[in-house]
Amino acid sequence: MFTVAANSLRERKKAQTREKIVLVALNLFADDGYSNTTIARIAEEAEISPRTVATYFPAKEDIVFYLSEQTKDRLAQAISEKPEGVDTMTALRSWLKEERDLFEQHHEVMGCQRRVIDNEESLRVREQALMRDFEIILAGGLAQDLGMESTDLEPRLAAAATMAVFDLIRDERKQRGDFEMPPVDEQLAKLDQALTFITGGVAALREAGE
Predict the structure, then answer these.
(1) Mind giving me the DSSP string for 36-81?
(2) Which string of b and e fits 160-185 if b means at least 16 CB within 10 Å?
(3) What is the per-residue pLDDT for 182?
(4) Fewest CB within 10 angstroms: 6, 61, 75, 157, which?
(5) Which of 27, 26, 20, 30 is nearest to 53 (CA)?
(6) How far apart are CA 159 and CA 118, in angstroms?
(7) CA–CA separation, 119 vs 115, rounded Å?
(8) Topology of the domain covering 9-59
């Protein structure tokens, strides 16, 4: 459901078990509270052993962020495998559209994940670290576009500005008090506004360094 189709029967069974654990756990976290839900309880509801749960997910946090890690992997793939002549921001836009399609298909479970994260401070801290991973992926792609190193100032600033757009969208949603995602056209419009700002900023930095 969440992952690319596995090649072998064994891999498919493992993926199904992993995703069953995620579905069961997220619902338990949302209903009973993250801190109150034990691995034993997840195993009972999923009709598997606690050892199996721990084998797939060594920590409860890993279950919560399984979907997000999959999203991150798809972004990394979209940027690393983008066709010749396609820049990172174009690849990012395409990735966002595809992710929104997945969100619509699995709206309930992803909304459940959002509620669980927003209600637990430790998970929000973990999410911030994950967003840093997204930023590093973007900086790597932007650096390649600019013919620079990923540690150079320009791609790092551009990546940070891009991620700030997604932070803005999330903050606006929280202020509304809901867990719904805004229309994809709205997200893309905000992203395009950011790209205008980013392009001008990078150009200014280049001129200052000449």
Answers:
(1) T--HHHHHHHHTS-HHHHHHH-SSHHHHHTHHHHHHHHHHHHHHHT
(2) ebbbebbeebbeebeeeeeeebeeee
(3) 61
(4) 6
(5) 20
(6) 24
(7) 6
(8) Arc Repressor Mutant, subunit A (1.10.10)
pLDDT tens digits, one per residue of 97-146: 888 888 888 888 988 999 999 999 999 999 999 999 999 999 999 899 88
- C-alpha 91/C-alpha 93 separation (Å) is 5
Give the end-to-end CA distance of the chain in Å, rounded to a whole number: 50
Contacts 24+ apart (CB under 8 A), 135-142: 135/159, 135/160, 135/162, 135/163, 137/72, 137/75, 137/76, 137/79, 138/75, 138/79, 138/88, 138/92, 138/162, 138/163, 140/79, 141/79, 141/80, 141/82, 141/88, 141/91, 141/92, 142/88, 142/89
**Topology annotation, domain 65-209:** Tetracycline Repressor; domain 2 (1.10.357)
pTM (two decimals): 0.84
CATH 1.10.357.10 domain position(s) in the chain: 65-209
The Cα–Cα gap between 138 and 76 comes to 8
Give the Å distances, CA to CA, from 41 to 26, 48, 61: 12, 10, 15
pLDDT digits (tens, 9 = 90+) for 26-39: 999 999 999 999 99
Question: 63 vs 153, which has greater pLDDT?
Answer: 63
